[in-house]
Specification:
84% helix; mainly alpha; 0% strand
Length: 139
């Protein structure tokens, strides 16, 4: 009897397991529809990723072009600054040279010193010659 009970129990459990694993036609169609939808979504995601990559590639190209333009502008500014510095140095050298040439040609002080010596105040000039000035600040 124990053997019959055991065999019966195994038969019931086996039959339930076999029948529980069988899928109905509706569930198989539902599974196929879900798989088709997932495939469609994956293809759409792949297309979006391709578009995003193309946009990123375009942005990279634009950034590279901007970098080249910025470097070119920077080089131009550097050349301009160097040219301005050369001109400034040349102008200073030219002024310095003119001062020395004028000094050596007349054997006198450079022109700037001559001007300062000529511009004595009227009061000092008048006192030098023994005259009082016509007007003073207190008159």
């Amino acid at each position: 009897m124990r053997l019959i009970k055991t065999v019966s129990f195994i038969a019931v459990v086996g039959t339930a397991t076999l029948l529980g694993g069988c899928a109905t036609r509706e569930s198989a169609e539902h599974a196929q529809a879900s798989a088709d939808l997932a495939d469609s979504d994956a293809k759409a995601a792949h297309g979006a990723a391709d578009r995003a990559q193309a946009t990123a590639d375009g942005a990279t190209k634009t950034a590279q072009d901007a970098t080249v333009l910025a470097q070119s502008a920077n080089d131009k500014v550097d050349r301009l600054i160097a040219d301005m510095q050369k001109r400034r140095e040349a102008a200073l050298h030219h002024r310095h040279h003119r001062r020395h040439v004028a000094s050596n040609a007349s054997n006198t002080c450079p022109p700037l010193q001559q001007k300062s010596e000529l511009k004595k105040p009227k009061r000092e000039a008048a006192l030098q010659f023994g005259k009082a000035p016509d007007k003073t600040a207190s008159n």
